[in-house]
Design a protein that fits this description.
By secondary structure, the protein is α+β, with helices and mostly antiparallel strands. The chain has helices spanning 14-24, 26-30, 56-75, and strands at 2-10, 35-42, 45-53.
């Protein structure tokens, strides 16, 4: 099954968005085979796109990992 998610987080300051995007960026390069992840900062927003063709369980686990990493990065600000 092909799946796609777009997760957008909006922050009060561009510096927060930059810090979170920088923390998430390694996922762009370390995603498992078959999963495409891109994270970019757009002003005060951090936008992550996830696309894959596979099992829903894998897709949900990837989303959960993204949200967990985002939460960890936010807690460090």
């Amino acid at each position: 099954m092909k799946m796609h998610a777009n997760v957008k987080c909006v922050y009060d300051q561009e510096s927060f968005a930059l810090a979170v995007a920088s923390a998430l960026r390694p996922d762009n390069f370390q995603a498992p085979s078959g999963i495409q992840i891109t994270t970019a900062r757009r002003g005060k927003q951090v936008v992550t796109n996830i696309a894959m063709d596979g099992k829903i369980e894998t897709f949900l686990a990837t989303l959960d990992d993204l949200l967990s990493c985002t939460s960890t990065a936010e807690s460090m600000l």
